Amino acid sequence: MRQDILAIVYAALDDIDAQSLQEKPVEKTAEAPLLGSDGGVDSLTIVNLVVAIEERIQTEMGKTVVLVDEDNLTLQEHPFRTVGTLAEYVEKIIDKH
Which pLDDT tens digit goes with each residue over 39-56? Predict the structure, then answer.
């Protein structure tokens, strides 16, 4: 399941990189920074990434998920630190459905 989730996240990264105004694309590695560190992305890119992941999960897995809501925003360990933490988080959300 983890590899499937990473594939979805990487494909979503490709989607947003094609639309992004950022100088360089987000690396497709688990360690690539997203939010809260140098080399990370801006908040608009995160929003676009979340939407792209939700759409890909719907299309490829037939599941409707919401990755950002009040409960998720209060998590102690922020899931948007790196590509890897985001993939782990997405897997947990999918497992709940």
Answer: 778 888 889 999 999 999
Q: What is the pTM of this model?
A: 0.86
Alpha-carbon gap, residue 92 to 86, rounded angstroms: 10
The DSSP call for residue 28 is S
Query: Are the C-beta atoms of 36 and 85 separated by less than 8 Å?
Result: no
Number of domains into which the chain is organized: 1
Handedness of CA 83, 78, 44, 94 (dihedral sign): positive
CATH classification at residue 18: 1.10.1200.10
Domain that holds residue 49: 2-96
